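Changelog-adjacent note: as of this version, every example in the card shows the full chain rather than a window. The one below runs 71 residues end to end.
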Amino acid sequence: VDNFINILLEVSAPLGIEFTEPDYIDTRSDQVDSYRRALLSLPPTAKFVLVILPSDSKPLYDLIKQVLCLD
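Full-length structure tokens:
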């Protein structure tokens, strides 16, 4: 994750896209409720959210889409 963030910061700057150092939320669990709590704890001013999933869990993907895109 740290390597990905470093690369993102590196390549975005020449494009005029500025990111501040990100806040990390580690759910410590792959349970849907853990992700729900984490997503709902995001500040309403958040403009960019990156979620790295431990697997290709459809219930987790559906939850993320619902909370971030539809609610």
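Structural remarks: Helices lie at 2-12, 32-40, 58-70.
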